[in-house]
Amino acid sequence: MPVANGRSYLAIPGPSVTPEAVIRAMSRASPNIYTGELHEITDTIIPDLKYVAGTAGDVAIYITNGHGMWEAALTNVTKRGDTVLVLSCGRFGMGWSAAAASLGLDVQIEDFGQEAVVNPERTREILAADTEGKIKAVLVCQVDTSTSAKSDVAAIRKAIDAAGHKALFLVDCIASLGCDRFEMDNWGVDIMISASQKGLMAPAGVGLIWLNEKAKAVRLGLTEVSPYWDWTLRINPAEFYQYFDGTAPTHHLYALRAALDLIKAEGMEAIWDRHETLVNAIWAAVEAWGQGGAMKLNMKNPNERSHAVTSIFLGGEDGDRLRDWCEKMCGVTLGIGLGRTPPSAYFRIGHMGHVNAHGILGVLGVIDAGLKALNIPHGEGALAAASTVISKAR
Ligand SMILES: *Cc1c(COP(=O)(O)O)cnc(C)c1O
Asked: Which residue's CA is the nearest one to ligand 1's atom 8?
């Protein structure tokens, strides 16, 4: 008989676990949108979003998802026929490049594969070869959620500078923001995009973009920008509705306010630290399981692994079998092997945002039980290895 009844647990890389405080904040009737609390809340959300990104630049809020933000970012700083360079490490890099191609951009893809991060030296070479300055923007996912590859954003900035190239630097932090360290201004990022449903712990439906003066100047040089995606009024609204180009995402604003309260109370350094300890427990468990079977972490080098999501190879159909068992028997939902061949050989653990030791140890315990139940060969001692990591937390 299943042992799933009780609270279910969503261990997928977005949407993530929603905190009770966020759920409570949304449990209300629609508020007055003309004046009052909603306006006050929005005014406080803006500076807090800048704190999360580590920027003194501007931020705009959209009613959309991550795919919408790919388009929002490109629409504000490129026009049909412009060239962009996409540095790809998996399905999401490829997705952003497909969006760019659909917008009529000339997309140059540098594909680093599905088990590697962006190579800064290769990036420098490509940009140095562009002597005419045709490339208008460099696009990269800090974390590609399909592979859990985490690229070194600061090093890519240095590579762009070393090539003496003027392209804007656009970073997708949809998976990583609020999980993996990110410092927009210190790292020289011109535009960063994210969404509400991952490290920001709110439901899906809000997209966010942060931008600096250099990005703003490029926008001013464009004559036609589709009105909904244009950030001009959103970052500098004369009327409240201009923040959103229409009706405010009322309940998402309450949700974001509650989530940002949690984030501010903990602090970014502590948040990054918590995600690091928890992911170390996951890595220790996977390494122990791998001692007696096919299981392995997709990314070999710990410095190149995300702290928000972990992609794991299991082989055959075992990724899907394990996911099914964990959900049906134990109420734990794991992530699919998105973008992999075959997807059924992989699974992913999402560990972003509102995650703590008992949640992660629970997920690992359920995976351990699933491996036993399904007779999938695996090494022993995974849970002991994970709890040892947690025991060393200070
Ligand atoms: C989740 C994700 C996206 C897509 O976001 P949606 O809200 O599903 O459209 C894009 N990029 C990365 C890195 C992601 O993790």
From this structure: 66
| Residue of 281, 81, 99 whose CA lies nearest to 174 | 99
Answer positive or negative: Cα dihedral of 177, 203, 359, 290. negative
If you ran DSSP here, which 8-state letter would residue 171 be given? E
User: CA dihedral in degrees (158, 160, 165, 171; nearest 10)?
Assistant: -120
Residue keyed to tokens 């070999």: 300
**10 beta partners:** 333
Task: Using most ligand atoms within 8 A of CB, pick from 16, 62, 91, 92 the residue to mutate for ligand 1.
Answer: 92
Residue 50 C-beta-side C-alpha neighbours within 13 Å:
15
pTM of the full structure = 0.98
Measured CA to CA in angstroms, residue 86 lies from 146, 229, 281, 353 at distances of 16, 21, 33, 27
Condensed to tens digits (0 to 9), the pLDDT of residues 219-252 reads 999 999 999 999 999 999 999 999 999 999 999 9
Count helices and strands (H / E) in the chain.
13, 14
> How do strand 9-11 and strand 332-336 relate by DSSP bridges?
parallel
- The residue whose CA has the least distance to atom 12 of ligand 1 is 174
Sorting pLDDT into bands at 50, 70 and 90, what band is 108?
Answer: very high
